[in-house]
Sequence to fold (446 residues):
Amino acid sequence: MSLPENTTVLIVGAGPAGLTAALSLAHHRCHDFVIVDAVAEGLRMSRAVTIHSATVEALASIDAADGLLSQAIRGKGFKITSRSSQIFVAKFDSLKKHSAHPYALYIPQNVTELVLGQKLQSLGVQVQRPHRVVGMKQNEKDSRVTDVSFEDGQVIRARYIIGADGAHSIIRTIAGMGFSDPDGPNAAENALVQMVSADVTFEPEPVDPFTLKGYLNGTVFSGNFFFFVPFGNSFNAELTGDGKPTTKSIFRVGCAIPGKNGEPPRAPPKEYIQKLIDTYGPACITSDPSLNPRPVKIDQLVWSTRHRSHSAIADRIFTRFGAAIFLVGDAAHIHSPAGGQGMNLGMRDAIFLTEAITKHIQASAENPDGDDAILQEIAEARHARALEIIGFTSTLSNLASLTYDPYAWWMPFSGASFRDLVLRILGGFDCVQSKVAWGLSGLGRR
Fold:
């Protein structure tokens, strides 16, 4: 498809952050933008599954929340369990005094992208595919314009460029923006740096209360963490695996893989996922009769993947490369999936940054040589927020990775045992439950 020769804003990448950026620009009456993506069609796998309260609020502020609210499961809370009993629960209804959206939305990422894409289409905007960026250079005639070249030979001249093109961002690389772990190259050596995720159905379906729809369930194990979310039949049409929709309830499962266990397969097979469930999962979804009086096994493996869960952040998320260059989403920061914060932060970044861009566009219309103070201020604020989230998720990951190995022969107590004891005690206090729900919601870290 032919691209325009000029645009005010070019968005590179049509994942949740890129689509949100486009919707935010349209909401702020900036219609001279183009959104491109390198692949021919949108995501077909579920990946991120949680949209927290602060992100719902941000999406509602640009009139982009209704479609998600109508399709998502409204999460009631988050449970931490051992393999056989509940340790801690945080219920999101405590957020009612802080937000009009006192819940998390549980919805697969591909459905999120589909809904946001449909909203964008209703505004008359189409994602241009497939168009892969291969180069950028400052325009020879205008020092505040960048010529962006694509693999097919086309070129767009843009005044603002939003890099929403993932952890391996070509925009970030060409613009010369660094990307590294803020705690140094060896920070992740002892952390849970690998993760396996899958969407599965079971035979028979689990019936334990842990599997009740509306809760994200996390199971702690020695040095590891396992989670699952019951989707029920809410997304069977979108989570088709081999193209054949299932009529059974679908569950998202995920498990951290300690580095000492080796690298998991690229697309873990059913047998691999079953072994993870039987080794680390809650008793109610295992096939081991010694743990589960009503054993269940994976019936259909709808989708599976592996990914790393280390942290990294761009050394800055705004720079001048002729045009004003911004990074959002995984292009700007990645971190542990603990707490489900990554996609949320990227979407909120997109909304706040595009609001600043529209203000800068208006100011530049009156003074073309004006400074970039508006842009620099918001970029520094979002960079600081990303560092805060990285610290928060690293703490959660470190707590999850504690083992039940005794501290020493003279102290037969472990870090994990102490963690579980503290959580069981503190979990009896409403104020503690509310604080955990507040921390996960993002309302204090918009």
User: Anything to note?
Assistant: The chain has a mean pLDDT of 90. The first strand starts at residue 6 and ends at 12. The chain is about 30% helix and 25% strand.
